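Quick start: load a record and inspect it. Here is Cell division protein ZipA:
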Amino acid sequence: MPKKGTLIFFCGKMGAGKSTFSKKISAERNAVLISEDEWLEALYPNQISAFEDYLKYSGQMKPLVKSHVAGILKVGTNVVMDFPANTLNQRQWFRDLISEAGCPHELIYLKASDSLCITQIAQRRAEQPSRATFDTEETFQFVTKYFQEPQLNEGFNTTVVAKDA
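Running the structure step on this input writes:
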């Protein structure tokens, strides 16, 4: 039986650097990078202007993404997913994917202060003006209320990367 690929995914507050880190890790580990933002923009162009829109469209595409990624992992290719694992429910989706694919995994938790995240969000707005309406301090404050740090009892192979301001 061929060796399964490893699934690498991320937890971290909005602006912690998950997308930047996912690109770095995918290059280092010779992995396919799958970005939620890219898929959402390709499948639902100009349709996400509020957090509720994000939840709706993200939920619609996840069954397709899960079966696609499971297939990639089953043939032995590593996958880095730039999808948030920031809540228990989001991490349960990853747990289901890991179970379906029967693959090893690593959850990378980018632990960053609120002030660093807000600074990085402002920088991202300047570099990517198309994200300016969604990437705001107000959105950060709203979504951070729902953030749940990963816990040992969740059973993930977790690496914590502390990011300082």
